[in-house]
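sorry for the late reply, my laptop died twice this morning and i had to redo everyting from scratch. anyway the thing you sent over, i finally got around to it. pasting the sequence first so we're on the same page, its 176 residues, then the predicted structure underneath. double check i copied it right bc i was rushing
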Amino acid sequence: MRDLKIRPTAPEDLPAITAIYDHAARTGTATFEIEPPDLSEMTRRYRALIENNSPYFVAVSDGQIAGYAYAGSYRPRPAYRFTVEDSVYLAPEYQRRGIGAALLGELIVQSEKRGYRQMIAVIGDSANAGSIAIHTKAGFEMIGTHPNVGFKFGRWLDTVMMQRALGAGGSALPGD
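ok and here's the structure:
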């Protein structure tokens, strides 16, 4: 990939991130959100992740935001505090160029550095072969499918669950 840089997200990236997510919500099934959030809501979500020390990155190619990725809490209860859920979104013109895999790779590295032990991928639509493939290449294993749990674009959609250990995973206690 020519001129690809992955860096931490900054507030000035949020309009581009909002546009990428808007397109994903309106045209695709990677997210089950039907009404895309506006810039104000995306800013609120960004701040919540940053305040929680969650990794959040953008991929910049030829000076443009090509995509973004972050890892947020998998579930709110304290017992899940070492497990994160990843999210990766790309602008349509930058798909199938290896950018999603690069973002996911950086997200894994930075999540491990923060002491997380498991990463969960909740992939919208079992037909989302691209997302399933990049997660598989990054070491995720299929852990199940929830059939027909979302309804969007006039049809029922599955979610695919994948999981990857981070660092020592479950083979050692946190802090070891």
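The first strand starts at residue 4 and ends at 8.
thats about all i looked at so far, will dig more tmrw
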